[in-house]
Write a structure and sequence with these properties.
There is one protein chain. This protein is mainly beta and 134 residues long. It folds into two domains: 30 residues, Rubrerythrin, domain 2, CATH 2.20.28; 83 residues, SOR catalytic domain (Immunoglobulin-like, Sandwich), CATH 2.60.40. Helix content is 0%, strand content 37%. Strands 9-8-11-12 form a four-stranded antiparallel beta sheet, with no helix packed on it. It binds fe (ii) ion. Fe (ii) ion binds next to loops.
Length: 134
């Protein structure tokens, strides 16, 4: 049974979906069940994926700086190449899912207007190494 906010991926076509209304017995794509993505939490090797909150002294989104959080993927920035990049970063609170969609050639960073104390989870999706969370 699907649960709210779960992410699923089709191993055949690479389709990724997020559950916005739970309760389906299964998700099917390309005529086979989709795999539920589990967020990894420990970096291995030289590439870093676990999202971190970095200082944000100059908020560029125009909000009150006190409630603006900047998230970066990896202590050392993750590559943002055409076939290997961070597709999105999400912040989950009790009643919101905030998603920043990223593109190759940009930095693996995003700003969110959210109180740090309200954050339940931060997660990101790498096109090669899948889901990571903090
Ligand atoms: Fe990666």
């Amino acid at each position: 049974m699907t649960k709210l906010r779960e992410l699923y991926r089709c191993e055949i076509c690479g389709n990724v979906v997020e559950i916005a209304h739970e309760g389906a017995p299964a998700l099917v794509c390309c005529e086979q069940p989709m795999n539920k993505l589990e967020g990894k939490t420990e970096d291995e090797g030289h590439e870093k994926h676990v999202p971190i909150i970095v200082e944000n002294p100059e908020c560029s989104c125009g909000c009150d700086e006190d409630i603006c959080v900047k998230v970066q993927v990896g202590g050392t920035e993750h590559p943002m190449e055409d076939k290997h990049y961070i597709k999105f970063i999400e912040i989950l609170t009790a009643d919101k899912v905030l998603r920043a969609e990223l593109k190759p050639g940009t930095r693996p960073r995003a700003e969110f207007c959210v109180n740090k104390e309200d954050i339940i989870e931060i997660r990101e999706f790498c096109t090669v190494h899948m889901l990571w969370k903090k």
